[in-house]
Every structure is written in structure tokens, then in C-alpha cells.
Amino acid sequence: MRNLLEIDNLKTSFFTREGEVQAVRGVTFSVQRGEVVGIVGESGCGKSVTCKSVISLLGSHGKVVGGHIRFQGEDLARKTAEQMRHLRGSEIAMIFQDPMTALNPVLTIGAADERDPYSPPAFKQEGGERKGYRDAWTGRHQPAGETL
User: Fold this and answer.
1) Which of 3, 66, 108, 138 has a CA 20 to 30 Å removed from the CA of 125?
2) Residues whose CB is less than 8 angstroms from the CB of residue 100 and which lie 6 or more positions away in sequence, other chains included
3) What tens digit of pLDDT does each residue of 7-37 get?
4) For 78-94, what is the mean pLDDT?
């Protein structure tokens, strides 16, 4: 089975007036379809930067400087900004740490998605079904779409 996401020796830096800050150095992991992966670590260790590197949301000072990021077999480094905008939200997304926009365990996935101001309109119209959740309107948040 081919991996859905492959991160190989990822290196991400931020460039400031004082010079380069190496935020991520040599991260490697893969995710298969249907698999749930948690990235854990101390505050400031690069968890969010790793995820933002994958979806190209590093801002103007951040840059992936090494390694490979492959999603569904395609090298994301070769994608244009427009291609990445299309991919984000339609194929790949990130749940941010902000408690106001993170998943609420008392809401169904569909209800949470409707409330999300960053969710693309197509998701709001189709509910969570497009995301692969079996029953987005009745099931609580569970990995791989399992309902309570």
C-alpha cells in the first residue's frame, strides 16, 4: 500500500535579520490512508512548523530548505502557490491549536465544519462526507470516522 503522506528528512528554516533559524531538522515519517498519527513534543519543538511546512503555510520568512514532502505520491515542493491553495481544504488540511478553531468534542464533525470560518464552501455544502467521515452530522469526533 502506498503512503498517503511521506515526510523524508524535512528541514525548515525561518530567515530573520539576525540570520537563519533552523526550526525543523531532519523529520521523517509517513502516514497511510486511514491511519491516525499524532505529533507530540515540548512547546517550541517544531510540531506546528512541521505541519505548516506540509501545507505551505509558513509565511514570508519560513522556507522548507531540505528533504521531501510527498502527498499521494506527488512532491509538494513542485506545486505552485495556486496549486497548493487548491489542495489545501480540498485534499489536505490542518486542525490548528487555537482553541476557538480546534475540534469541539461536543459537536458533530459536520456541525463543527459548518462553524469553521476557514472551511472551504464545498465542505460546508457536502458536510463531512467528503472528508471520509461515515456520518458527519450524528457522529462525534473519532479517528477514521468512527462514531460513538
Assistant:
1) 3
2) none
3) 999 999 999 999 999 999 999 999 999 888 8
4) 88
DSSP state, 127?
Answer: G
How many domains is the chain built from?
Answer: 2
pTM higher than 0.70: no
Total count of residues recorded for the chain? 148
* Residue 30, domain extent: 5-90
Q: Is residue 21 one of the residues assigned to a domain?
A: yes
- List, as own/partner pairs, every contact residues 81-89 make where C-beta atoms lie below 8 angstroms and the sequence separation is at least 24, other chains included: 81/56, 84/55, 84/56, 87/55, 88/55, 88/56, 88/57, 89/118, 89/119, 89/120, 89/122, 89/123
Asked whether residue 63 is domain-assigned, the answer is yes
Query: Any idea which residue has 487555537 for its cell?
Result: 98
61-71 confidence digits (pLDDT tens):
999 999 999 99
